[in-house]
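User: Reviewer 2 asked us to show a designed sequence for the structure in our supplementary figure. I'm pasting the structure tokens here. Could you produce the per-position amino acids so we can include them in the response letter?
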């Protein structure tokens, strides 16, 4: 069996995000079939927003903004993790 290296790698759709360790229902999951390059680019964009939101939230004492950045970073991590899984297949 040969593998076509020109076929773009895609997300596998196995990464789930749970709100906390005790929760058994995922808050969100990554869909399969997203080109890994696109998922990684989007994760990078999200992390740029996280960086800005965290800085503003801390300097302004806005805990709500910091928590929003926390959840947004979890989405970016899920994208990166699933793209990594897709790159291995």
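Assistant: Here is a per-position design you can include in the supplement:
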């Amino acid at each position: 069996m040969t593998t076509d290296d020109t076929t773009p790698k895609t997300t596998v759709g196995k990464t789930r995000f749970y709100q906390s360790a005790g929760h058994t229902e995922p808050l969100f999951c990554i869909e399969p079939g997203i080109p890994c390059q696109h998922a990684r680019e989007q994760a990078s964009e999200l992390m740029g927003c996280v960086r800005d939101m965290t800085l503003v939230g801390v300097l302004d004492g806005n805990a709500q903004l910091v928590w929003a950045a926390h959840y947004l970073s979890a989405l970016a991590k899920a994208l990166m993790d699933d793209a990594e899984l897709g790159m291995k297949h």
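For the response letter, you might also mention the following. The CA atoms of residues 18 and 25 lie 7 Å apart. The first helix runs from residue 36 to 60.
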